[in-house]
Structures are given as structure tokens and as C-alpha cells.
Queue: 3 jobs
Job 1
Amino acid sequence: MDIYDQEAYSVDVGTRLRQLREQRNLSMRSLATASGLSANALSMIERGKTSPSVSTLYKLADAMGVPITTFFGEPATKQQAIFIHAQERPRVPFSRGVWEGLGGEQFSGRVEPFMLTLESGASSGPHNMVHSGHEFVFCLRGQLEYQVEREIYTLESGDSLLFAAQLNHRWRNSGKNVANALIVLSGFSEDEQPHVMHWKKNKAA
């Protein structure tokens, strides 16, 4: 199955990024400075010439003070029960992969599930991730390598990993085939947005 051949709607990240930037009266140069990216890189993303990595999406969301799910569209009203048809699942393409929302952006509780589809070699970026709460990973197919502090875990289909998310961690598809993983963030502080923090650059790294 092709990595992008899924029943979900894709988000035009470049167009959405430009809309968010202009709504906040941010110049490309000022957003570049705030996010740590180059103005040329931002221009390429906005014009659809390149797909941002996961870590880049989080840097942009953090710089604009919005959750990454804002790239899906306008913020939804929080609800206590969320049902999503497969064909309605929001999907954000990034460099060598796809991230799919599973309702966490609409849920009023402290849990955020999402799905990752990763081409061989795809990764969370060069920096460690760190946030509050807990992180659960279930590998659906392929191979996914998680580094938690200095320990490396290689997950294959059916394998799972659960850890305290304040530990430094990162991930990559270390196999030769496409990998799928279900990730659930939970137990985070009420005032935190882990979808912003999850791949945020570790300032101490």
C-alpha cells in the first residue's frame, strides 16, 4: 500500500502556514527568526516546494503560539466524546511521512492519540523530544526505533513501548519498509499542549 493511499483528507500545509502567518501579521523574516528556520525554508514550504519535517511543524506551531493541530483547520470545540470516520481523519504530510489526528485535538480530556506512517529513514528530527505525562507507542507494521535517554528500543509489528515522557526521546524508521505506529500521549498537565511540545527542540540539548 502506498504511504499516502489512505482514507483521510490531506491538509495543504504550505497554504495553511501562510494563512496563519498573515493572520498574525508576521513577516516571513520574523517567523523565521522566532522558529529558528531560514526565510528561504519557509518560502519553500509556503509555495509547496518542500514538505516540512515533523520537528519543523512543531517549531512553526510553537513560534506562532498555536497547537500543531491548527494546521488541520480552525480550532474545534472541545468535546467529551469524539467519533471520527476513517475518511474524515485529518492528515498532515511531513518530510517522508504522514501524521494523522485521531481526535485528541477535539477531546476535552488529557489524552492525545495519533497515527504515524513513515517511509524508510523518516525521523522525528535531530533533536530530542521532552514533555510531561506518558507516551505509549504501538507498532502496527514495519520497524520503528525509539531512543529513550541512552536506551534504544526496536519495535516491530505488535511490539509496544510505554515510558515517562519527561525522558529525552526521539524516533526513526530504521527498517527498509514503510512503518505505521499508533502513539498516545496522556497524563500531561492541564495547561500544556503536548502536540506542541512533543517534537519541540530540547533547549538543553
Job 2
Amino acid sequence: MKSTALMTLALMALAVTGQASAQDVIDQCPPAVVSATPIADFIAREAPVLALDLPSDPQSQRPVAIEYSDAHETRAKIHKYASWATLPLLAGEFALGQKLYNDTNSQTDSLRGLHGAVGAGLIGLFAVNSVTGLWNLLESNQAPGHTKRLVHGIMMLAAEGGFVAAAASAPGHTRDPLAPVVTNKATHRDIAVVSIGVGTAGYLLMLLTKN
């Protein structure tokens, strides 16, 4: 009997000790908190990380400011003011050349001289604009519209070369009827007309497509 009572007391002590240990473990573990908006909480936590991984929008980037030198601005003004004479000189040269081509009786020294002077003025004008335009084109190769300016420059250089070729192919004359100079005025006219057309197109490209 005595041993049975001792065993009963030991079992009761173990049971009480086990309940106390379990209660201590439960007290040490914090209660789990369940959010009422789990999706919103996930987005709030992951939004900064997702924003870092997204590529930047090129359209949202601001263009970089480009600073031009004083010499660049001076050349631009020379190029602009000289270009105002382009169309009048092209039209005048075409009219004079066409008159000389159609009316052989109008080939006086004064008319031929005027035609030659206007042609020389065109070559000089295109030379000035070629230097100023190409120089500024090289300095502003990162500026918007570079491709358009490049096409414009190529067209104007081609027209300038055509004017030089037309001047070189101009019909010659001699006062000695026994020693005529063989010339081809049609070739001279064709080169000049093509050059005038290319120069006009290159001029209008910049005039009508301003940014």
C-alpha cells in the first residue's frame, strides 16, 4: 500500500511538471498574427525591389543640354545670312542660262559676263556655306537632327561640285571664224540644271523641315 501511494504521488508530480513545461513553451512562442490584407502587404514589401529591377523609360529621360561655342554661333549666323541669297542666285542663273541657250542672238558679251558672274557668285556662296556648315556639323554631331543636316550637307556639296563642272564645261568662243572652238552647250546646260535642282532641294530640306 505504501509503495502504491508513493508511485501515485510520483506520477502526479510528473504530470504537473509536464504541464508546466508545456505551458512555458506556449508562453515563449508569440502568437501568430494573420493579416487581413495579405496581397496588399506583399505588394508594399516588394514594390521597392520591383522598382529597382524595372528598366528606365528612355522617353522619360530628359535630353542633355548641349553648349555651343561662340565660334559655332558666329558660323551659324554667317551660314544663315548667306543662305538667303541661295534661291535668288539659283533662279537668276537658271534664267540667264536659259536665255543664252535658247536665243543665240542674245549671246552678247554683257549677258555672258553677267551669267558668268552669277555662276561665280553661286560657287563662292556654296563654298562659304560648305565651310561653315560642315564645321558646325562636326561640332554638333550629338545634337538632334544630325541626320537631316548631314543629308543637307551632302546635297549642297554635290550641287557645288556640279556648278564647278558646269563652269568648266561652258562653251568657248573665238573671234576667228576659221578656228572655231568645238563646244557642247547642251552638256553645260544639263549639268547646270541638275546642280540647280539638287541645290534647291537641299535648301528646301532645311527650310521646310525646321524642328
Job 3
Amino acid sequence: MREQIGGERGAESVLLMPTEVIEYLYCPRFTYFLNCLNIPQHEEQRYKVLLGRELHDKKRKINREYLRKRIGCTGKEIDVHMISKKYHLRGIVDEVLYFADGTRAPLDYKFAEYTDFVYRTHRIQSILYGLLIQDWFGCEVKRGFVCYARSSYKLKEIFFKEKDFDEGLQIINEIISIISKGFFPKKTRFRVRCIDCCYRNICV
């Protein structure tokens, strides 16, 4: 697995949240406006974000023990705060699941419907949580889980390979390069994403 991260001046102090990586994948200019120009998103005003936060509050009150039994995990921790200076990551994973073979896995709740496949953004986010768990707990992570609230809490399992972790680290390197060099990246090639973007009035 690729270990080299950053390398530019100031890169060693960068700690990214998995959600920031997802925003970069949505459009690289999110990284520039937020981290280089320090222009906040005001994401608390967005409807989906509010619904997502409400979901995370509700899930604490719902007994999901049947999920644990279904996938054979032996224990779990909820809302785990983790930092990895090694991988330049920080974040809170909804649940860290324990398994009898000594491995652990992230479980992430999504306010979304499952549409026959796991989106790349959901897969990458799970991979990043896997990196955090590996470094924070010093254990092996072979898979992750995503729970789709709007599809009756459908649970999808994602198996990780070495190339998946390499892909996650490559994306982290790209983001750190933007932050440390301060260059203006190309915007997303999907113009429809610009319609609801909070930076659309200042993006040229």
C-alpha cells in the first residue's frame, strides 16, 4: 500500500475529513475555495445536510442489534473519533464493528436510497474510514458497510483490496497538493453539479 503522503511545504499539518475528500471528488474546486481561500460552504442551510443530521440523531435511538447478528460481528463502538497523522485524516465513523478474526470494519449510515450499486463516493468514504481504523486501532480492515436509511436500512458490504487503499491515498495526495501549492484546479466536467453549488457565484 502506498505510504507516501504530501511532500509539499505545510502538507504535514493537513488533516482531512472523509467528507472533504468526497467534496473534492464532486468538484476539485471545493477544496480550493474552502481550504485555500477559507470561504465556508454554509452547508447547514442545505436541506439534505439537515436531513442527514436528523438521521444520525435518530439512529442512536433505534435498536439495530439485528444488523450485528446478521453480519456476525462480535461488538461495536458508536461515533468513534479518530485521527491519523500518517494518512492525513480525521473524522467520526458512525460505528466501528468488531469481528472474531480480529479485524474491524466501518459502518456508515446514509440518508439515501440504494439503487442497485454502491456509489464511488460512498465506497471511497468507507475506504478512508478503513484507513483511519487501521491506524487508530492498529488492526486489519478487510471490508466496510454502508446502511441506506431510505431503503429500509438496507445494508451493503464493501470488500477492500490493496488497490482500494492505494486509490484512497492517491486522492488524499491530490487534495494536499492543491492545499499546499494553492493552485486553482479544473472544475468538475459534470455541469449539472454547478447548479446547486454554494460556490457557483464566485467560480469562473
